[in-house]
Amino acid sequence: MNLSLLEAIRETNPVVFTVANSVTIAEVANAVNAIGASPIMSKAKEEAANLVGIAGAIALNLGTWTPDQIDQMMTVGSLANQHQRPVVIDPVAVGLPSRRQQFDRLIATTQPTVIRANAGEMAALSGDLSNGKGIDATGAVADPKRIVQAVALHYHCVAVMTGAIDWISDGQQTVSLHVGTPLFATHVGSGDMLSSIVAAYLAVEPNAMTAAVTGTAIFGATGQWAVNQSKLTLKQPGSFGIALMDSFSQVTVETLSSYLKDKVVDE
């Protein structure tokens, strides 16, 4: 983990190109902007070459896919690989056969740098379909370390599995993060925000494992700090969204260091 990347993003303002979930597109753009990066969203395949060319990293979200959007993602992903731009794929509800089919089409043309998913989605990708519950997957999977390692090894990428405890693996090294807030689960778009935020960290850090661990840890700690600063309860998801966005731009390395002490565990 490298907390100095927080300031690296604020200083360099990397462009993050997201092919977005239409439900959360504004939330994601605002979050990327709040951390100090520069968001670009587009639905036009015709812009792919230009936008990949200026992007520091790309995030592809399958949350509200259409045939045209999958075609766009395949073009964007292929170009990103050609131009050596890091790619984050967010395979929303990939446990559903229709969604898995589209994910498989995308993965055939695009080598992801990171796959970011919840426990149910990651279990589905690992072949453990018993835990697949789509975007609202809750509860712990039986063996999270095995699942996240399996996905990382199979897809040759870093796998980020988010939940009450976050698990991150490149297939060799595996880390668990014990930080965050239950309010993330009440706020639609938290995972989508994280996927594009991890892309921002990939834009300033060539080591994908370091970028993924750092971005995910900072995201969780910032959420926890936002709750504490605003004295929020679990019945305030709307207030949490506002506090979280403010906290993205206000949080400091010193604050993060205190929240993350002993919370990042090598497994």
Automatic annotation (TrEMBL):
One of its GO terms (molecular function) is hydroxyethylthiazole kinase activity. Pathway: Cofactor biosynthesis; thiamine diphosphate biosynthesis; 4-methyl-5-(2-phosphoethyl)-thiazole from 5-(2-hydroxyethyl)-4-methylthiazole: step 1/1. GO terms for biological process: thiamine biosynthetic process; thiamine diphosphate biosynthetic process. Keywords: ATP-binding, Kinase, Magnesium, Metal-binding, Nucleotide-binding, Thiamine biosynthesis, Transferase. Gene3D superfamilies: 3.40.1190.20. It catalyses: 5-(2-hydroxyethyl)-4-methylthiazole + ATP = 4-methyl-5-(2-phosphooxyethyl)-thiazole + ADP + H(+). CDD domains: THZ_kinase. Its EC number is 2.7.1.50. ATP binds at residues 116, 162. Its cofactor is Mg(2+). Substrate binds at residues 41, 189. The keyword Signal does not apply. Belongs to the Thz kinase family. Catalyzes the phosphorylation of the hydroxyl group of 4-methyl-5-beta-hydroxyethylthiazole (THZ). This is Hydroxyethylthiazole kinase. It comes from Furfurilactobacillus rossiae.
